[in-house]
């Protein structure tokens, strides 16, 4: 049976999911809600859905699941509301900027037995998945060290920074999740160095734009994350995992892979410009995974617990960077 | 206005086009015809089209264009029939295995002022297009030499070989078109060496499975084509253009780009398994280009003339390989 | 005038330098000293030098310079002895395992105005130098972040570990120097996570075999170092520098660069097996630089001060890893 | 015993060999002859050899072997003279520009049982050798198709072109040899297209600067050669061999392998500037192989017969290009 889905939030990421749903035969987008009516209408028009209020969606028994793509400060409320309404919930990261609020939300989900999947899209990237598969197949032996390079093409505007929760909760949170996905063990200590090298305005807002983080697990496995809000050559997204028998790495992706050779050397074009193009396949696979989850009773990946842990790692990194201490979890 | 399209032929390549149409908002597949009813029904079901006969499609004034994906020996007849019916025609290569028949068909198209675009999908591959753009932007100066490597993962079955017209008309025909697309000048001489190295059955049918072809233009520009019906590592599709100021090359494509390093070295996965996955983006762009052509009066690329020339080059290559002569056009 | 050099220590690295001297027309190896007579004789035979005692070398006024390639615990004494003898000194890293002893040695060098160059060979690697040149030419703008991957093919024997001073003083010390070489600013804080993942015997000796280190400068520039005593695919030596206008990376090197493609994918051979082959060109350039230094009065690079700072960074990393604190310098 | 060698011809390639001999402990350069005294003296000075006349070298019984690096029109005479003098001969390609003269020379060598090795340096390149080893180890199965890309950085001066014997005898001759080295079967037919695209002066001298050649063996194996006298990005030297189980390719080589990424993309430096730097390791291995040959009685590779065959292929290619025919051998 085709699953009927509703989209809450018609912004940039909402559009990405609407497109992914349109290309999946197992789902149909039937409703879109957004405080900004025009944005909702645009997606509705493009996908054959109807513009509805959140209340209407909540009350509509024919709707099987919702995708929460609204501003972060509404995530926890909406998760609770829709698991109580009996709908499967897909929610963009993070659950909330506040760990306590996020924990309370997770408790509600547990208590009502709600179905919630978190939007860490990178787990679904075919290249990152292939890295994970190589690990699972034993091709590199026991995992020892993970290196994640994650750089945005450019810094977001000040308005975004203000509500983002800071670089660790907004940007590194994806890398924390990927680190855990690859390490195969829980992280027990965090150390982070962070500074303002890209844009002084980010510093004025109390945030950082450049960070290096080391995560360590109980058995001593280590993950390194290198973050910057600037990469002139495109969206830099690499993962490398080093193990007892070898290494496996996911290379950067570019829309066009040609190479021009001339007296100045050999030049390949820049990388994808940002996540919408870099992770197109990941978003499609993410929706597909959400539909699998709706149909089955297996645990979701990533789960709301994964969201909680990533958030705690972000808080630990912030504390480490600010107070210049190693934070033990 | 959304263009209404009909698909003639519901085989492998028909399915590819149906999928591309489904993802293009400017078009809608409304009818599918195939001698094998089940195949037509399957595509119709998946795309919301109806199964119709060729006669019904021909008579349906609401249908704007047709895609001819039927067996080769029906192409010329169907092109003539549908340009006479006033419909825009997209036809898979080749026009016909016989140059005379193809020329007569082209003459009909000209006389009725018909709109025909040929299905040389590789012109629409984003990587090959980027090579062409690099040339057009003057990045490599004046084109001098083109090298095309084009190898199928495996040999087709004998039944296919029998009706294929042979390696030059079936497989190299794409490379002839790409060579012309890159050379920017007409070819005036052809030499080919061909042999049976992959499968003796192909030789028993009078065909070849391995070929090396050199094309030369009036000003002395040269193109080399290397063809094989076997490539254990996937669908090998490369183009390199050498000019007075530099070179530009389109690299091979693989579905997943990871690299595993261990004591045996560094290993990346095989290439795409064949054209359906390798040229997904090309097929989408091809349909989009057909829609552009339907909407405008600009000359199509590739045109039926391009189809004719490629066919003549195939015949020349066959003569060269069989008679061990250099063929001047 | 050809410079006459003496080699103190005829072990693995001594042999490497003897070979480099043999290929440089500006120098001649005239004497070799080693407690193990056969080793000294072998190098002497191969290079046309004579076996001598340290005393003889010290007393020989015709000898212009010495290369100290003896065990670490003799370095400081020999440096002091030979600068006092008025000879130019090239000394393998580290100056000493003890910072105090190293500082005292540096003080002696300063007081007698001695000429000492430290053996951080990687500064002379043509690829790493090219990275530095790209920085100096402004191609990546202001340096922001450095990533160093440095993994040995395999763990050394326990006897070596015992006298090595531990992973930070023995192995990471090279990476500390390269980090400084690339950062262009002094490091003000160090944090390190270290564990035993490769060989439990290393742990029993109180050392680590896997480490992740983050270095930060006063202005907030960051360097990450990833170290392991195991890399099944060869000697993994990469540097990447990220700046305000772009990035520059030195790729890994392999003795043979072919690629085999088959049904299992595309495979390139492993990397160089260790430093003797990986850094052949670096060792030659290092000797050449030492000869330049002997002829001129410019400051050496790397200097004994560079050696001191690297040692202090090693101590800081060890403290950070053991005590789980961020160490401020 | 160290072999005493004499160098006939102190030009560019003579210097290359003198340097290779200097680094090989099994040989010593004892004499250098050249009509241009200063050139001979320069090499003699650098290598500790003496300047001698050809007559003196011929008469010196202590000299074990000679390297003929004189102008092409003296090769055959000198080969004959020195095999008659009982010396091992290493001769740069080609034996002569005239096949008849070359055959007569080969006959003299056979009749006196002379030791002659031809200077096809590329057989000794570690990357090309590794390609050949991969074939020999069965990693790509039965060889089917070879693709050789061989482009010089720039066209030589007119004076060189005049005495060069033309592009096929001067430049492609190396590729003919490598094609045979990889094909593992004798070539039975040749077709070539050649033109003047780089420098009209080359055309005025009756030569070509751009050529595409297809070679075919009796069993139908094919080799393609792409030649140009211009490659703005450096000395382009690639070989790819396609077989029944896979492919193997030797990649281009560059002196420095860094990559700079910025808003314009990812750029690696140009290739080596020409053969002296590209084939440094090959020249060393070539001398080593000549010394092996001097010490043993095994057949040389490449032999004078290999030189003869390459010359015949050059003549066949010239005939094919000029007369527009396929030439059967």
UniProtKB/TrEMBL annotation, chains A, B, C, D:
Signal peptide positions on this chain? none
The molecular function terms of the Gene Ontology recorded here are:
inositol 2-dehydrogenase (NAD+) activity
- Keywords from the named record: Oxidoreductase
> Gene3D superfamilies per the record?
Dihydrodipicolinate Reductase, domain 2, NAD(P)-binding Rossmann-like Domain
Give the EC number(s) listed in the UniProt record. 1.1.1.18, 1.1.1.369
Q: Which domain of life is it from?
A: Bacteria
Domain Gfo/Idh/MocA-like oxidoreductase N-terminal as annotated: residue spans? 4-120
Q: Which Pfam families match?
A: GFO_IDH_MocA, GFO_IDH_MocA_C3
Domain GFO/IDH/MocA-like oxidoreductase residue range list: 128-248
Q: What class of enzyme is it?
A: oxidoreductase
The family database entries (NCBIfam families) matched by this protein are listed as:
myo_inos_iolG
Family from the record: Belongs to the Gfo/Idh/MocA family.
Looking up PANTHER family in the UniProt record yields: BINDING ROSSMANN FOLD OXIDOREDUCTASE, PUTATIVE (AFU_ORTHOLOGUE AFUA_2G10240)-RELATED (PTHR42840:SF3), NAD(P)-BINDING ROSSMANN-FOLD SUPERFAMILY PROTEIN-RELATED (PTHR42840)
Name the record gives this protein: Myo-inositol 2-dehydrogenase/D-chiro-inositol 1-dehydrogenase
Q: Which organism is it from?
A: Rhizobium paknamense
User: What are the leading ranks of the lineage?
Assistant: Bacteria, Pseudomonadati, Pseudomonadota, Alphaproteobacteria, Hyphomicrobiales
